[in-house]
Amino acid sequence: MSYDALVISAHPDDAEVQMGGTIARLVDEGLRVLLVDLCDGEPSDFAAPGERAAQARRAAAILGAERLFLDGQDRLLGDTIPLRLQVARLIRIHRPQIVFGTTDACVHPDHAAAGALLSAAVFYARLDHWERVPGGELLADTEPWNVERLFFPHCKMEPPWGRDFAFAVDVSDTYDRKRAALAEYGSIFRVEEGDRLLTLYEAEDAYLGRLFGVAYAEAFKSHSPLLVPSPTVFLPGLHG
Ligand SMILES: [Zn+2]
Predict the structure, then answer these.
(1) Any idea what the CATH number is for the domain that residue 16 is in?
(2) With 90 as the cut, is the pLDDT of residue 1 above it?
(3) CA 111 – ligand 1 centroid, Å
(4) What range defines the domain where residue 160 resides?
């Protein structure tokens, strides 16, 4: 099964918090999107084991994406060689053009580990001759794959980026679906009571939208410089 985009995150809910509106938008454009969580997010704050994974599956369905979990342990994720190889194998099997991951994370060590291991996995994915590498058996039966773009949404556990990002996506039209997907996560958010974190996350998306004159936006950094065919792709503008 091939996917056009992989979103690789430490925990269930990271993908939705960071770029749920963009995921829905990609799906609306006809892209196949797979969310990959490095662990199942256990133990969660407000639910029994297994509930968070079920909530995550429902959240992905709301956005129109598919989802799978790797067997990492929440709180103990590390940039390990076995995890790099697992992620590289997924990239080689699913052959995405775009991969989204985490960057600039230092508050939660799982997020920091996810960023480092993803960059390594994207590089591993394009290399050949793993049968000659001791320990490289996991990649030996798959073909090399070059990811074209590696983008990083803002990890909202970190301080806001301000204007230090490469581009932003207008998610005004898909924001209801992002909100609905996040509302599934009763295991970690007090949704009914107006969870403080969810309120702050939405405020950030609204502030980003304000920069561009739209209701909501999600910001991304890029692994490499971005080229457009014409400056007209940036029209219309608000502030010149
Ligand atoms: Zn997380």
Answers:
(1) 3.40.50.10320
(2) no
(3) 6
(4) 5-223
